[in-house]
Amino acid sequence: MAKTEDYGLGEYVFPRGWFMIAPAAEATTVPKEVRFFGEDMVLYRGESGTPHLVEAYCPHMGAHLARNTTSYVVHDGEHVQGESIRCPFHGWRFGPDGQCDDIPYAEGFIPKAACIRTYPVVERAGIIWMWHDPEQKEPDFPLPGFGGHWDEPGWVHWKIDHMGDLNSHPIEIVDNMADVAHFIPIHGSSNISYFANEFIDHIVHQYFSAGHRTLVSEEDQDLTLDTWYEGPSILQSEMAGDYPSFIMIAHTPIEDGLTRVWHGLMVKVNDGSKPITEEDRAAALQYQEASRLALAQDVEIWQYKRACTRPMVLKFDGPFARLRKWYGQFYNQRSEAGEVHKKVNGLVATVDKRKKDQVA
Ligand code: FES
Ligand SMILES: [Fe+2]
């Protein structure tokens, strides 16, 4: 598997940004091991309901804070107390700030160095998100809002599809944003009338209008999509149609060159004036499944392709080089991001066959 260095992305192995680490239901008061960015971490929910993410290994003698089922700390229900997590080995306990707050046998003595690393997490839209930053600073762009639909009445929430752990560098997934030529063979589009990318600082949009083999019936009727990344790893797409819907695709590096991918789709089944029925939920699930299958067509390619460190780009292909430059901003110091924005910001239309009266 090709690594960040092979793509010449920048000085950091893993990018800066917001990343999905788990469906929210997986964060409970039973601490759970997770591994991303080449690091072992532990996800747990404090008794207040707040999720916490901490480094996995205890500074005392290195026990794993989650991987235990037999310690009396676990049996006696002392693994999570309040917002703190207790090590199963000798019982040292750590607060959500990472500082040790109890050593059961040390008569109140706690060394200052007894602390574990903590990572910023936010729960939103049924997902636990982590801010990952090689510079270990506060976020310099916000976590996406997912169209605000999660809290809107009339919308059926997504269930999370795990699409697999792919032996691919995430750049191969992000490349999709510029990839106009895969829509017809992979996704069954037809007659592409418009394809453009707009780069706006940490955001990149893909505007797409085309017919489709099965999704639209009328000859000259177009599906029109606005799909965008906010930061390096979170794709969102707002879709009109029989049901308005909203796609989320998130991917997170596990190791350099190994990437986990998830998918979800929210569906608006009514205007919020009436309750959501079981039939509505079933219809929404079916809608999500159709969307999952479309993504699975990309996943099958990613799974088996070799790494593409230097695409052989035609002028009819989309702006891959510009997109990769945009993506590189997350692998370098944030102080250099402004320079990248100056170079890449703007609109690039690869296909524009719209009739004059369609052009706004
Ligand atoms: S290794 Fe964690 S308390 Fe000793
Ligand atoms: Fe695709």
UniProtKB/TrEMBL annotation:
<dbReference type="Pfam" id="PF19298">
    <property type="entry name" value="KshA_C"/>
</dbReference>
<keyword id="KW-0411">Iron-sulfur</keyword>
<keyword id="KW-0001">2Fe-2S</keyword>
<dbReference type="InterPro" id="IPR036922">
    <property type="entry name" value="Rieske_2Fe-2S_sf"/>
</dbReference>
<dbReference type="InterPro" id="IPR050584">
    <property type="entry name" value="Cholesterol_7-desaturase"/>
</dbReference>
<dbReference type="GO" id="GO:0051537">
    <property type="term" value="F:2 iron, 2 sulfur cluster binding"/>
</dbReference>
<keyword id="KW-0560">Oxidoreductase</keyword>
<dbReference type="GO" id="GO:0008203">
    <property type="term" value="P:cholesterol metabolic process"/>
</dbReference>
<dbReference type="InterPro" id="IPR045605">
    <property type="entry name" value="KshA-like_C"/>
</dbReference>
<dbReference type="GO" id="GO:0016491">
    <property type="term" value="F:oxidoreductase activity"/>
</dbReference>
<dbReference type="InterPro" id="IPR017941">
    <property type="entry name" value="Rieske_2Fe-2S"/>
</dbReference>
<feature type="domain" description="Rieske">
    <location>
        <begin position="18"/>
        <end position="130"/>
    </location>
</feature>
<dbReference type="GO" id="GO:0046872">
    <property type="term" value="F:metal ion binding"/>
</dbReference>
<dbReference type="Pfam" id="PF00355">
    <property type="entry name" value="Rieske"/>
</dbReference>
<keyword id="KW-0408">Iron</keyword>
<protein>
    <submittedName>
        <fullName>Rieske (2Fe-2S) protein</fullName>
    </submittedName>
</protein>
<keyword id="KW-0479">Metal-binding</keyword>
